Amino acid sequence: MPFFTCIDNFIDEDIQKDIKRYIYCKELGTSPYEGSFDKQPALWVDKYFVIKKAFAKFETNQISKIKREQKNGR
Q1: Residue whose C-alpha is closest to residue 52's, from 16, 26, 32, 17
Q2: Which of 43, 45, 47, 74 has a beta carbon 3.0–4.6 Å from 69's, enabling a disulfide?
Q3: How far apart are CA 65 and CA 19, in angstroms?
Q4: Per-10-residue mean pLDDT for the chain, 74 residues long?
Q5: CA distance 69 to 74
Q6: Phi and psi at residue 41, in whole multiples of 5°?
């Protein structure tokens, strides 16, 4: 991969902050910003759902990998 793309495409400080905020809020059950759902910035709500979907896909892939390995006897 390093020959085809720049590392900045994979590690972005702003994205890392958003992921940290997502995990923190999910683990502690708090809102990232003051107020109820309708008071949250629209951009954050969009980012939240993108991050949530990415984590769900990652988890699904991990489960599928484990099932394949168990089926193949590894």
Answers
A1: 26
A2: 74
A3: 24
A4: 55 86 92 87 92 92 92 78
A5: 5
A6: -60, 135
Nearest to 15 by CA among 67, 50, 53: 50
CB 53 within 8 A of CB 21: no
Q: What is the Cα–Cα distance from 36 to 43, expressed in whole angstroms? A: 15
**Is the CB of residue 32 less than 8 Å from the CB of residue 40?**
yes
The token duo for 21 is 């905020």
Nearest-10 Cα torsion for 15, 17, 19, 25: -150
